[in-house]
Protein 1
Amino acid sequence: MAPDRSHGAGQRSEDDVKGLIGKKVGMTQVFNDEGNLVPVTVIDVNTCVVVGKRTEEKDQYSAVALGFGVAKEKALTKAELGHFKKQGAPLRRHVKEFRVSAADAEAFTVGEAVKADMFAKGQLVDVTGITKGRGFTGVMKRWNFKGSQTKTHGTHEYQRHPGAIGQRKTPGRVYPNKKMPGHYGVEKVTTQNLTVVDVDVEKGLLLVKGGVAGHNQGIVYVRPSIKVAMREQHKAAKAGKK
Amino acid sequence: MRPSAIEYINSKQLRKDVVDFRTGDTVRVHWRVKEGEKERTQPFEGVVIRKTRGANAATFTVRKVSYGVGVERIFPLHSPRYERIEVLTRGSVNRNRLFYLRNLRGKAARLETAEEASGKGAKA
């Protein structure tokens, strides 16, 4: 359960943070170029369109707003409708902004579809999703506690309990953030550095290696790997110094 | 029900030249091996003791006894890595999975071929 740092936008390089909104279709296995069977998550990026743009002059930052999932007019609020109508963009259920440099933003026009070919085969991507809700769970599921180490020797109704949660008179309190039972799941999780196994532009499908947070039909955000971007930035900076 | 997008992806992966064989058959799998730059085929011959289903992820297990040691290999049925599968003999068995062969050695581990089985039936 990595803490979500995706909104630390200031740390990201402004270039190429662009991404896609998609729907997790499910998982399967495919043969890669070496002929090995690899597990993949299928992401459907059909209906992903540009629904707005943010510019340096007007908004003090540059970004494109993407929409995903066809929405009926009656399903949207009047405020939402107003945004779409003002931009002349098709109605979409989900909207998210992706930071792009002003130069890159020119490649996007409002109303135009964003295709899966934004990503290339072999590229590394970060995929963000909302994990499956697990309700109120105990410490074994939520924090991977080990549970009781014995089922006998008098242990009774204590197999999945957390055990002690603190010390004695010092400190005389339970430390903050102590791992305890509680609500688990339905949190934003980004899986970094997933390889794009295949891109099907025609069908609007993206195949990434490995699992992605969330249930099937869940909304996911696909972005180029930030670690790769940072590495390249460091390299460029080093080369610049020399 | 599986989403059609996944079915589409799976169907694209299927090999069209999959030969028909069953458990109990003796097959020779011409597996492509890469050694550095060179590529050659390495046949693996033995009895099919298991076939698993599952669209593009279907597999089969081939067992042979090599220098007295039992060797089993699992091949994906639709793998692009084999050149072809030769069916050498058709076996006649009463099980879907022939794991009992693992406990048998030598003569006991032989299987009746389909021809032998049908011949026997004709005589009786």
Protein 2
Amino acid sequence: MIEKLPAKKMVITGDYAAAYGALLCDVDVVAAYPITPQTLIVEEFSTFVNDGITDAEFIMVESEHSAMSACIAAQAAGARTFTATSSQGLALMHEMLFVASALRLPVVMAVVNRTLAAPIGIWCEHNDSMPERDSGWIQMSCEDNQEVLDMIIMAYKIGENKDVLLPVMPCLDAFILSHTVEPVEAPSSDEVAEFLPKYEPQAILDPDKPMAIGTFTPPEYIQELRYQTHVAMEKAKDVIKKVTKEFASKFGRDYHGLIEEYRCDDADVVLMTIGTVTGTAREVVDELRQKGKKVGLIKLRFYRPFPAEEIRKIAENVEAFGVYDRAISYGSGGPLFIETRHALYGLDLPVLNFLAGLGGRDVVKGDVEKMYEILLKAKEEKPKEEIYWIGTRGVEI
Amino acid sequence: MEIVAKNHPLDKYLRTDRIPHIWCPGCGLGTVLNCFLHALEETDIDLKNLAIVSGIGCTGRVAGYINVDSYHTTHGRAIPFATGLKLANPKLKVVVFSGDGDLFAIGGNHFIHAARRNIDMTVICVNNYNYGMTGGQLGPTTPLDARTTTSPYGNIEHPFNLCHVAAASGAVYVARWTALHVRRLKESMKEALNKKGFSFIEVIASCPTTYGRRNKMPTGLETMKYYKEHSVIKHGIDPSKADIEIGKDIVVGKFVDIEKPTFDEAVHELIKKARK
């Protein structure tokens, strides 16, 4: 239960937006461990608990592994749960992430993307969440603090859908969102309650009706469970589209489902971005359009499930396609690049990868302009390279 | 005014390009590091054979400041790293320098098992009662009723008594001092460095920025005054009787100093026996 909260406009950090989103969703249990730059999320949430705004149970456990374990168990007992982490914390949770998804427990966890050691850094890189691609978690990235708050609310609605029943991981860029204040509109608790009904667990641990979950399972059964989880992730695509539409009609903010197109209609070349770089890229697109360059932009929102069809549909009508990545799969390319090339298999157009902002380095307008410059050139002549390390010492482009 | 000394006499132990350190004014960590460097100065440990391992947090920065082979590991994993170092090169003097959150929350399991095996290493734990680096959350050593950012109405969780944990887990040397007891702390560090086996020193430090100001000790000086008034030296006391509670005396001193074969010695003994 939470106190009645009116709709209001606040100037808040991305971390606060995540905590406030979880508060509005009336979560029952939060278990967490501090890690920069996530700490503020659970700290803010503990303040809501201590101020009596929510009667949620809050516990500071002894590690992220325990935090995820506690959330999984609480969810299995029928509670709506929330946690948050970053970087090393997420890596430590790795083992438990697979448990949450395979047991079909829709835990929601905000991940503040921070570079994964070594060496130790605290700034933004996506090499913490992207390796969790195969964990069975729905994974999406936010562009601004408003999207963070809205996405936490939608995450529960998507994850708890009976066709899905998967955990959801909304990601936000370290410091660029987590510690930066922006104006954010928060709906009232009543409106959120109308949008997000009370959590109805499918199967709960109940002493009156004993049940064992996650027990030792022989090969006769596991393969079918893997298949069912895969089908659920596929079904999540439609659910995500439906939920974003419903959210748009109720709250007036439309996130367009799995991806958001920006000036792609008549574009010759298109760049796909993720996270906060999208905002910068939008401006670059506007400026290049003023100069008569036919450039477009795709904001990738969901990494899992991956919107292959939507991306392919756009790529079919362009002459060069660029993918921005803030992480690298050593020896191959950026994770989104690998995924995109797979989605565009058979299409005859150059697909290029731009790596920038790793370890938290700023990605500025000039960097994005460079990406479009390379794409526009690739439209004319076959490029020599596929992967471009933008603004990297020792690398010439 | 004439500059008498251009360099600090302990500069040779520091990566001076990394100084000034990041610790807050009034923090006890500078004092503890200073004591450790003095202890090094007064022992005949060959710096070439000394390795410092730290985890994550404010104390975790120590490994980066001391100019010897050092490893700044991931959160909680200083002791397993140190164990690997010691196994690969048993001649190394291995020192773990880390905080209470790192060593006893996320890394708690490693601590008890390294002590149980009696791995030859010295663990110095700087206890500031909270997670300082992330802004002062409740941790495994936060005293009952203490206020932190996540327990604004007071802590309801019972804290660990670190010296009791160390002794019960099998440490051969266990001592506790506050950051006020600089000479005794330094002597203890020398003893621990010269001790064979798992030696443990808890240093109660000051953390005005994130802990003190929420618990009526808003400055480093006030914390030191508190430690001066409330510290009682009781050598050899059963560490289970040395819980830390708000408003009560802080029992300090050397609690354990025993002999036991180290893991390394036990391995070689076993090999000898097996080959007979």
